[in-house]
Amino acid sequence: MFNNTEWLSQVREDVVDPGREIVDPHHHLWPRPHLSYDLEELWSDTQDGHNVVQTVFMECGSAYRKEGPEQMRPVGETEFVTAAAERAAAAPEKAQIAAIIGHADLRRDDLDAILDAHEAAAKGRFRGIRHAGAYDANPEALSIGGRAPAGLYADPDFRRGVARLGERGMTYDTWNYHHQITDFAALARAVPGTTMILDHFGTPLGVGRYEGKREEIFAKWKDDIAEVAACPNVHAKLGGMAMPDNGYGWNTREKPPSSDEFVEAQGKWYAHAIDCFGPERCMFESNFPVDRLSISYRTLWNGLKKIAADYPEPAQAALFSGTARKVYKL
């Protein structure tokens, strides 16, 4: 699925600001031969010119246990990533998987037992849970359809689980679609004691019934992001907008975008989010290998560095590494 290296190699730029230290707070891994994005493939991206020193693995439904209690099967993913992190530790000059975000059904009465199992499997790297709220009434046009039921964020059992994460010093990550951002803001207000991270700008869609409506969506999204940024317990991951469902169509072109084209297309989304949250609550993310369908790692981080270039040095340090280290206790 992600073996598009030859296509990506058509755009090969000089690395911008190569000494800049980067913590990539959002990537996935899949075991071979499933989707073939394991530690070695991750390193082929992180070692491609930029100074990526640490990463955070984000749950993606990979390597689940094939037997045993259903609620414990996601612990297999944590075991798989922990093994990769331990392999990485033998090569300290390369990017280290410093933290793991796993999955659990936050509505369950036995949530603590599941969290305990993740913590034991991660050997000191476990930081929190992503139980995503993504739901769209017409998912047929989406290449990555959300699996959440409608109204998950308002479910009392779910809110209890999110609150439990905060009580245990763990984070809550989510991804949802742009039309759900205000629902997420309501969750954040209801559970102020849990540190929450909104992934991928809230995923502004651009396919299916949303095709051709980017400016209309952007206008509403600006207000919704300002609303959720008013919740001090929420942080924002800025990235993940090169997925096919965002509707830019880069993955279907003869040639991938340059960093300048990336900045021209998406820079205003980054600027608004940073204005609302402040750099100290924002972190740049790669969302690889999913965004690799559209843009190379080298080109993506070049674009992010161009977006950040007008900000003072403390802000840039926060965006590229500081916020991620603070939020995920790296």
- Unreliable stretches covering 5 or more consecutive residues: none
Question: Over all CA atoms, what is the radius of gyration?
Answer: 19 Å
Put simply, the count of helices is 10
The shape is globular
The CATH topology assignment is: TIM Barrel
Report the portion of residues in β strands: 5-15%
Category from helices, strands and their pairing: alpha/beta
Task: Work out the count of structural domains.
Answer: 1
Task: State the end-to-end CA separation.
Answer: 31 Å
So what's the CATH class? Alpha Beta
How many strands in all?
Answer: 8
Average residue-wise pLDDT: 97
Main sheet: strand order: 1-2-3-4-5-6-7-8
Proportion of helical residues: 25-40%
The major beta sheet can be summarized as: 8 strands, parallel
GO molecular function: hydrolase activity
Family: Belongs to the metallo-dependent hydrolases superfamily.
InterPro entries: Amidohydro-rel (IPR006680), Metal_Hydrolase (IPR032466), Metallo-dep_Lactonases (IPR052350)
Protein name: Amidohydrolase family protein
Short description:
The protein is 37% helix and 13% strand. It has 330 residues and is α/β, with parallel strands linked by helices. The protein has one domain: Metal-dependent hydrolases (TIM Barrel), CATH 3.20.20.140.
Describe the protein in words.
The chain is of the alpha/beta class and 330 residues long. It has a single domain (5-327), classed as Metal-dependent hydrolases (TIM Barrel), CATH 3.20.20.140. It has helices at residues 5-8, 39-46, 75-88, 111-122, 156-167, 181-190, 214-229, 259-277, 297-308, 313-327, and strands spanning 21-27, 51-58, 96-102, 126-130, 171-174, 196-198, 234-238, 282-284. An 8-stranded parallel sheet has the order 1-2-3-4-5-6-7-8. The relative contact order is 0.15.
